[in-house]
Amino acid sequence: MSDMRKTFYVGHTSDGSINERPMSPHLEVYKPYLSMVLSISNRITGAALAGGSTLAVAWLASAAKGPRTFGKVQKVAGSLVGQTVLFGCSSAFFLHFIGGLRHLMWDSCGHRLEKDEINQDSKTAVVATTALTLGLWTIIFGRKLKKKK
Predict the structure, then answer these.
(1) Residue-number span of the structural domain to which 134 is assigned
(2) Nearest to 102 by CA among 39, 58, 57
(3) Does the structure show a pLDDT above 80 at 23?
(4) Which end of the chain offers a freer environment for a tag, N or C, measured as fewer CB atoms within 10 Å?
(5) The pTM is what?
C-alpha cells in the first residue's frame, strides 16, 4: 500500500468480504465558511470563558481578602494588558452567548436550519457580537471619563 493510513480503513461487509472504507478529509480540505468558523469559535470561547471565570473568582477573592490585595488586582486589571484580557473575555462571552442562542433555536425549535438561513444568521451573529462588545466598552469608558471630570 502506498499510504499507510489505508491499512486502518479496511472493513468487512455483512457477508464477511473485505472492503475499503472511505477516509474522511482533514479540515484543510474543506473551504472555511463563516458558520464553520463560528462553530469552532463557539467551542474555543467556551473554554476561554472557563479561564475568564477563574479570573473573576480571583478578583472576588481579592476583594474578600482586603483593600490592599484588592488594590493590587485592580491595578493589574486596569493596565493595558488587563483591559485587553477583559475586552477579550467580554467578546468571548457575547460570541458564546449568541452561539448558544442559535443552538437553542436549532435544537429545541428546529428553526433556521436551512443553509441560507444559517449563513445569514452567521453574519448577524458577528455583527451582534461586535455591537454588544463595543456597546459594553463604550459604557465602561464613558463612565470612566465622567469620573475623571
Answers:
(1) 27-148
(2) 39
(3) no
(4) C
(5) 0.77
